[in-house]
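Example noted here:
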Amino acid sequence: MALIDLFTRKPATPAVPAEAPVPEAWPEIGETWKPEGLPVAERYYNQAHAVVLVASTGQDLFGTSYYLVACLGCHFLSTRTKYHSSYIRYTLSKAAKTANDHAGTCRALPRELPPRPDEDTARGLLRSWVTAMQRRDLDLDVDLAEFDSGRLELQRTIEWIRTELEVLAAERSDLLSARRDERTGTVLFRVLPLPPLTAPRTPRLHRSRPAPGTRGG
């Protein structure tokens, strides 16, 4: 190596850290939208360019992620089976297929993205849904997937929902109960049935008796 190299060699320039990518703007509205508690994984466009969302709603006890499909053009929301007796636990690939199939047939015009409700409004929504469950006169354990159908409107994390349900159970023990599963450590909720209605008591009519020494008319 030549002696001059010792004086002319410069230290290696440190690599410039890559900047975080700028979120892609949605072409139909010109802005980004990633609602809290409802991470959008994919989106599709129907023939009128309305958006069909594939969004993550959480994980099951085994750590498997699941998704819902919702159209912002029409009111299509796929979270239950056609019998409404069980929930659809979409994998990402199945959710993507459902969204793509819907986008291919939907002709609804784009709608504005729903605004995120404030804390009091979101809490009121959640409590109204639980109250509606009780009015169906059901005594049932509540799967948190029960609220997936309202997640687009609620825009809150599953942890927020769980915490609010615990508060509700403490305040309204006649409406909701909460207990911790010893095996999994998760909190389980149960909607309590409405208390039985008691028929109003009809006052008994007493016939008046004539005073002693008198005759009744």
